[in-house]
Amino acid sequence: SQQGEEDPQALSIQEGENATMNCSYKTSINNLQWYRQNSGRGLVHLILIRSNEREKHSGRLRVTLDTSKKSSSLLITASRAADTASYFCATDAGGNNRLAFGKGNQVVVIP
Amino acid sequence: NAGVMQNPRHLVRRRGQEARLRCSPMKGHSHVYWYRQLPEEGLKFMVYLQKENIIDESGMPKERFSAEFPKEGPSILRIQQVVRGDSAAYFCATSGRTRTDTQYFGPGTRLTVL
Asked: Which of A67, A72, B7, B100 is the most buried (most CB within 10 A)?
């Protein structure tokens, strides 16, 4: 079964607003990662949070991890038009560090 | 330090032809992962290789697909006798000295089968 199911699937916000997206997974993990993908491009690694961490910050990004609920959230604060992209969470639950991705959240930031 | 490189970026093949996709890891990286992304989908794991070894091929289709990572040169994902359903974006990701390191992705190869 597929790990990592983001919710909501699509989000449209005004520049300056915050964007929050969620991800759930099904089995135990060592870490969870968030990636960004601009249309037609490769994936850019945003942040990795380990299973013993509850929250992590990187610039305007804030990631939380709740292993009891098997869920994670990504918050982008003070969004910019350049944040328009698809955001994927990925877990390493498959072993050998192979990543299992969700279907992604499409975020559109309107200038 | 150059990132992960993939070529070609776009590849068009007719049904029945062969497709060869190349991935050159970041300097110092010895772990290579291949993923496939169908339209409007997330990435799906295909195969994990280290130099000259296939470590995990649990995501590879049983037929027509193969991968290698020779001692010298890039990793190759080879698809024989392509079919329209093989049309997708193929990404490789590489990581450093340990298998738990962050994976860095290449720009992908977009394969179109006519």
From this structure: A72
What pLDDT shows up at residue A89?
Answer: 92
Name the phi and psi angles at A83, rounded to 5. -80, -10
The residue among A89, A26, A96 whose CA lies nearest residue A63 is: A89
Residue B45 sits at the vertex; the CA angle it makes with B42 and B47, to the nearest 5 degrees, is 155
DSSP code, position B85: G
CA distance B64 to A7: 35
**Full pLDDT tens readout for chain A, 111 residues:** 234 555 557 889 999 999 999 999 988 888 899 999 998 788 999 999 999 999 999 999 999 999 999 999 999 999 999 999 999 999 987 667 788 888 888 999 999
Task: Count contacts between A and B (CB, < 8 Å).
Answer: 66
> Is the distance from CB of A63 to CB of A55 less than 8 angstroms?
yes
Which chain A residue is nearest to residue B91, measuring alpha carbons?
A42
User: Which residue type occupies B36?
Assistant: R
Cβ of A97 within 8 Å of Cβ of B104? The answer is no
A35 contacts chain B (CB < 8 A)? yes
